[in-house]
Amino acid sequence: MATPAALDLNLLHTFLAVYRSGSFTAAAPRLGLSQPTVTARIRTLEQRTGRELFTRLPRGVEPTPYAHELSARIAGPLHELAALEEPGAAAVPVHLAGPSELLRVRVLPALVPLVADEGELRVAQGLSEPLLEEMRAGRHDLVIATRRPRGRGLVSVPLADEEYVLVAGPAWAERGAGSADVCSALRDVPMVTYAEDLPIVRRYWRAVFGKQLIARAAMTVPNLYAVLSAVTAGAGYSVLPRSLCQDHLDSGRLTLLHDPEEPPLNTVFLVQRPGADTNPDVLRVRDRLRQAARSW
Predict the structure, then answer these.
(1) Measuring CA to CA, which of 15, 119, 167, 296 is 20 to 30 A from 193?
(2) Secondary structure letter of residue 30 according to DSSP
(3) How confident is the model over 56-106, as pLDDT tens digits?
(4) How many CB atoms sit inside 10 A of residue 252's CB?
(5) Which domains does the chain possess?
(6) Using CA atoms, how far apart are residues 71 and 20, in angstroms rounded to an integer?
(7) What tens digit of pLDDT does each residue of 168-210 get?
(8) How many CA atoms lie within 13 Å of 37's alpha carbon, on the beta-carbon side?
């Protein structure tokens, strides 16, 4: 079996582009190649390594375990070689990932100046654990995670604290706002959540009221944006990050049902892939996020 060092660098560059874009078709324009050429190069690389790299799907491809391993081994060295061979070449894109809500409300607005300054950014969204696994495989340079990664393989620093608030639409808010016993007042109010196990709401009840939540969700929706939309439309109450719903609170579309002295907080972490700092733009994005997070 051929080792990565013995392989044609063009094949490895093609492999990495397919790995990161998720399809031969999407990788082709990034490489300035035709889709058949990309396909041929991947087949050649599979023949030389003796391993299947991608499982072909109806739309795109899925990396095999060996592809994850190969990406982790070659991504850093290929970036270093590009910097040595073409010091004046175009910047290598920075691959950033995180929860969709944080990306939209906090992260992307903070990074606009870097993109306007000819930086290149590739953004993915998802849950923290799958994104961190993809980072370990070399797919992302930076991940914004809602929990500290396990193990010692990834470097992480606290980025910001997210405050959680208990909210409802104005119609339902009359049932709970200002009540001495919020839990009892909300007993017959529908609850809206993004997951069947109610992780955020349960945590709020435990931290603020010192009680175990025994209610069931009346509506479960795909993400926190959908929760916000449903609650604003009058579907019931929920617990949301303040950053996501502050505009709705300010405008009166939502009402704060409870204002504890110590609201529950969740620390958001900025995680960096080992070797990613060989790309100076990764450092620019990292430093910009850390600076912006001071005002979040």
Answers:
(1) 296
(2) H
(3) 887 778 889 998 888 888 877 876 676 665 555 556 789 999 999 899 989
(4) 8
(5) 1-89 (1.10.10.10), 92-154+273-296 (3.40.190.10), 161-266 (3.40.190.10)
(6) 9
(7) 999 887 765 555 688 888 888 999 999 899 999 999 999 999 9
(8) 13
**Can you tell me which residue has the tokens 């969700």?**
217
Identify the CA nearest to 23 among candidates 69, 65, 54.
Answer: 54
Report residue 129 as tokens.
């654990």
pLDDT value, residue 219: 97
Residues 5-31: pLDDT tens digits? 456 888 998 998 888 777 898 888 878
Give CA–CA dist 48/42, Å, rounded.
10
Residue located via tokens 């399809």 = 23
Which residues, in sequence order, are bridge partners of residue 63?
Answer: 54
Query: What's the CA gap between 217 and 72, in Å, rounded?
Result: 41
* Max Cα–Cα distance, the chain, nearest Å: 71
Q: How far apart are CA 234 and CA 253, in angstroms?
A: 10
Alpha helices (H) along the chain = 9-21, 24-31, 35-49, 65-85, 100-102, 108-116, 128-136, 170-176, 182-185, 199-204, 224-232, 242-251, 280-293
Alpha helices in 107-240 (DSSP H): 108-116, 128-136, 170-176, 182-185, 199-204, 224-232
Partners of 191 in beta bridges: 237
Task: Tell me the two tokens of residue 16.
Answer: 């990495």
Residue 180 neighbours by CB distance under 10 Å: 6
| H-helix segments, 205-259 | 224-232, 242-251
Contacts of 115 (CB under 8 A, 6+ apart): 121
Task: Give the whole-angstrom CA distance, residue 140 versus residue 49.
Answer: 24
